[in-house]
Design brief:
Distance between the termini: 9 Å
GO molecular function: 2,3-diketo-5-methylthiopentyl-1-phosphate enolase activity; 2-hydroxy-3-keto-5-methylthiopentenyl-1-phosphate phosphatase activity; acireductone synthase activity; magnesium ion binding
Low-confidence stretches: none
Largest sheet: 6 strands, parallel
EC number: 3.1.3.77
InterPro entries: Enolase-ppase_E1, HAD-like_sf, HAD-SF_hydro_IA, HAD_sf
Structural class: alpha/beta
Catalytic activity: 5-methylsulfanyl-2,3-dioxopentyl phosphate + H2O = 1,2-dihydroxy-5-(methylsulfanyl)pent-1-en-3-one + phosphate
Keywords: Amino-acid biosynthesis, Hydrolase, Magnesium, Metal-binding, Methionine biosynthesis
Number of domains: 2
Mean pLDDT: 94
Shape: globular
Length: 227
C-alpha cells in the first residue's frame, strides 16, 4: 500500500528532547506561578484550573495549592491534559515575546517540506497540547512550518501507547491506517501504531534499536515512496 500520509511525534523525532526538557519545561515552571495568579479569573485559564482540581481530587484547592500541584506535575513530567494546556498558554506568551524559538532538526525541516511538495499529507501526534505543537512549528528556528501540516493530535485523542488512539487518528483523516507512516523514537508508541495497522519507522538519532521496527538516524534516510 502506498504511503499517502505521515504522522510524526515531536520529542526525539522532529525536535531534540533537550529542547523540551532544558528549555520549554523550565520556562513554563518559572513563569507558571505568576501567569496563573494573573490570569486565574479568565475563562480559559479558570477551566483548566478546575480540571487540575478534578484530576488531583482536590475540588476546593485554592489558587496557590493548584500552582503547587502543577509544579509537582511538571517535576514528574506528568502527561496531564490541563497542565499541557496551561503550559501551552505560557509558551505562547514566550514565543510571542520572542523569548522562545521552536527547535526542529534541519533534516526534519527539509524532509517535511519535500514530502509536502510531493502531496503527502502531514500530521502531528504529541503528548504536548495541539497549541504547543503549533507553537513549536509556527515559531520555529526555520520559520513558520504550520502550512505544511494537515492536522494535529494530542492526548485528547488518547494515550500514545494505545492502539485505539492511532485508529481514531486514521479515522479523523481521509486515509486508511495502512496508508499512514508513523514516526517516533518510542518503541511502545510504534508498537501501538502498528497494532492499529499503520506503517512505522523509528528515529534513533543517538543510535540504538527499536525492536521490530525499521530505524533511521535522520529524516534524510526516510523514503516513504519505497516503504
Amino acid at each position: 500500500m502506498t504511503i499517502r500520509a505521515i504522522l510524526t511525534d515531536i520529542e526525539g523525532t522532529t525536535s531534540a528532547v533537550s529542547f523540551v526538557f532544558d528549555v520549554l519545561f523550565p520556562f513554563a515552571a518559572k513563569h507558571l506561578p505568576g501567569y496563573v495568579r494573573e490570569h486565574a479569573q479568565e475563562v480559559a485559564v479558570a477551566e483548566q484550573l478546575d480540571a487540575v482540581r478534578a484530576e488531583a481530587g482536590e475540588l476546593t484547592a485554592d489558587t496557590e495549592r493548584v500552582i503547587e500541584i502543577l509544579l509537582g506535575w511538571i517535576a514528574e513530567d506528568r502527561k496531564v491534559t490541563p497542565l499541557k494546556a496551561l503550559q501551552g498558554m505560557i509558551w505562547a506568551q514566550g514565543y510571542k515575546a520572542g523569548e522562545l524559538k521552536g527547535h526542529v532538526y534541519p533534516d526534519a525541516v527539509e524532509a517535511l517540506r519535500r514530502w509536502h511538495a510531493l502531496g503527502i499529507a502531514l500530521y502531528v501526534y504529541s503528548s504536548g497540547s495541539v497549541q504547543a505543537q503549533k507553537l513549536i512549528f509556527g515559531c520555529s528556528e526555520a520559520g513558520d512550518l504550520t502550512p505544511l501540516f494537515s492536522g494535529y493530535f494530542d492526548t485528547m485523542t488518547g494515550g500514545k501507547r494505545e492502539a485505539a488512539s492511532y485508529s481514531r487518528i486514521a479515522s479523523a483523516t481521509t486515509h486508511q491506517a495502512d496508508e499512514i507512516l508513523f514516526l517516533s523514537d518510542v518503541v511502545e508508541e510504534l508498537d501501538a501504531a502498528r497494532s492499529a495497522g499503520m506503517k512505522t519507522c523509528g528515529l534513533v538519532r543517538e543510535g540504538g534499536d527499536l525492536a521490530g521496527h525499521p530505524c533511521v538516524k535522520s529524516f534524510a534516510e526516510i523514503d516513504p515512496l519505497t516503504l
